[in-house]
Every structure is written in C-alpha cells, then in structure tokens.
# Entry
Amino acid sequence: MPKSKSTAKATAKPAFTPNPEQLALLPDISGNSINGLGETAVRRPTPIYWQDSDKIAHGKLQDWFYAHGRTPKATKHREGTMKLLQEPLPPVAPGPTDKTPQEWTAAAKEVALASEADRAGVAHIDPNWVYEGAEVNYPWAIVVGVSMEYGPLSQAPSTTTQVEVHKQYARGARAAVALARWIREQGFDAKAHGGPRAGPMLLLPAAIAAGFGELGKHGSMINRQYGSLFRLAYVMTDMPLMADSPDDFGADGFCTNCRVCTRACPVDAIHEEKQMVRGHKKWFVNFDKCVLYFNENNGCAICIAACPWSKIGTAPRLAEKLIRRRMRNP
# Structure
C-alpha cells in the first residue's frame, strides 16, 4: 500500500540550509576534488581538515567550527588531548633489549591494552598513506582503538554525543602516549598521534591493515567486536615488529545491501555505491555536504549511531552470522 501524503511528509528528512557565514568561507575548490574523487591514479592524500588552518583550503571553515563550538566539556577534552600530544616524550634509551619482532609485538600490545586501549594492531606503513607535504621515517604503525558508549552516540547529533566522542579521543591519545613512552624507554624511537587532529598520515587504511576491520559505507571502520563504536589513535615507531593481517568478516558485503546510514544522513552525503578515489574503489562520503552540517551541529555521528553494527551486542553476533554464511557459500 502506498504511503499517504501525510505519512510521507512525516518521514521525510527536514531540509538543511547552511549558515550563510559558512557558505561565504567555502574555498573555490571542492573538498571532494581535494580528496581525489574520480581520480584513477594512486597518489598520496592531500590534507583537507583537522590540520593547521593556514595550510589547508578549508582553513577558514575549520576556524569557524572551532569558534562556534557549543560544548564546553567536549572542548575541554579536545584541548587536553592536544596538550598531551604536544608534551615532549622521554629520550630514547640506549641499548635496546634483544628480543624478536614477535616478542616486541606481543609486549607492545600488552602495554597498549594496559594503558586504556581496548584493542591494538600493527601495520607496516605504506608511503601512500602519508599526506602530501608530510614526512614519515618510521616503518611501523601500532594502531590502538578505544570503544564508545552506544547511549551517548544514539543521541547524535547532541552535546552528549560530542562529549563522548572527545572523551574517547582523549582516552585513545593517553593510550598512544603511554605506549610511545614505553617504546622509547626500550631504546626505540616512537611518536604518538590521536584525534581529532590529523597526524602525518591517514589512519583508516592503517587500521584496516592492522586487523581492526573493514571500511563501512558511512566512511568509518566496522569492527567485529565494537561495530562502528570506537575511535583510533596510533604510534609510529622503528621498533622491530610483526604486521597483523586484515580482518575480512563480511562487513563490506553487508554494507553493499544496507541503506540505513544513507537514509539516516540528513544531507545525503553517503554514496550508495563505491567510488573511485585516488586509484582505489571504495566507500565515499561527500565532504562538501557533510562538513557544513557537521560544523553547524558541532559534530554529527548520525551515521555511526544509525549503523546496525553499533547496537549493543550486535557486532559479534552479526560477524559470526556472516562468517557462517560465507562458509556455507564459499
């Protein structure tokens, strides 16, 4: 039975009209172009947001976001995180202990998990993850993940949601800094990075390589234990390590047939189909649409909250179901 006009109107997305102040600050170049939408050649990413404002095309827009923040608790967490990451680390101790890469990997993960991280994984750094203009001289990235609470995220976009997001960013940064300190005490170099500020390289491909899960249609990671409800930080190091393997449990195929986040997005920023981006076909979120709504709501996370993988207790059961289905139909 077709919906009545009144029902259709009730379920329609409310129109979003960007603040004229924001529109006046938009650069001439599209954020999607900066991100490499439609490009068939592989290249390094270009900095676009969460960087120094004077070095990015959308710097004035980013400054507007910071100036119009309306969540003091979230701002306090964010500023504390930035201060922590800027503090000097101890000098690298002389004469590292002789251990195998397997032993160092196990020890580093143990330290991360004992330092507030809920998960840790290792990836060999790919030069194509490093932003244009940045330089990375470390071979390894240890990615750490911290889970988020579903209750606060389910209220997105809200002050409660943003406090939770920045609270967990802060926890991830503390875990990364603690790990970097420990690595330097063992005689190896290390540098910690955490959100929401971007470090010198993309974090999502490193997390995928480190076994954290798969990229979801909403542009965030999906983990078999935490679903979409976690945040990331990382440590770059020259400690000899062993790389983890990617974890393919079927989330990508699930996203192909799921439209929950695309319907939930208030500005239709989530593409239904994968797009070619800097030589790779992948899920893609329209930056130009997303950033304006994100800025005016002091953050968003609607797509993460709506994701079926985010509901409490769902991710492990859903992952097992998809794996069993794959085993029956290889």
